[in-house]
Amino acid sequence: MSFLQTGTIYSIKARHSGKVLGIGGASQDNGAQVIQWDWANVNNEKWRVIDLGDDIYTFQAIHSGQFMSVYRNETNNGSWIVQYPANDQATSQQFLLTDASDGYFYMRPMDNTNKYVAVAGGSKDNGTSIIIWDPSTEKDEQRFKFEVQSVS
Fold first, then answer.
1. CATH class given for the domain over 9-150
2. What is the 8-class DSSP label of residue 79?
3. What is the CA radius of gyration of the chain?
4. How far is C-alpha 152 from the chain's CA centre?
5. DSSP 3-state percent helix, strand, coil across the chain (nearest 5)
6. pLDDT tens digits, residue range 97-139?
7. 3-class secondary-structure state, position 132
8. CA–CA dist 44, 123 (Å, integer)
9. Is the pLDDT of residue 152 over 70?
10. How many percent of the chain have pLDDT more than 90?
């Protein structure tokens, strides 16, 4: 059973802060950072989902058409999550979702499945970078909820 539906548009909310993931400054640039921000119901905070099967997904930013990606396929703690044009072969644009309970999920980049997507430093501030970090089932900054914004 798929957690998310292809074509559906979601916001992605961090459990610890209640803020959503979006592209900083609504940038159209390749490599623009994904950050957390208060929900404003704008397109740079909305993501179209593509289900690749086996609980693996890609996330397309509505405002730019680019895809959530691990910056330069890096694998170190603190590597940024950014947007890049589609690359069907790039595992850095594919994320495995695993159940974190209460409707939240962990997001693991497929090019580095021993890291989780996280809000840097567990910050609750607007503009904080989204990164990859060692997994911890005790850290709410690594748990995300997908809330439907539009169904195709």
1. mainly beta
2. P
3. 13
4. 20
5. 10, 40, 45
6. 999 999 999 999 998 769 999 999 999 999 999 999 999 988 9
7. strand
8. 20
9. no
10. 88
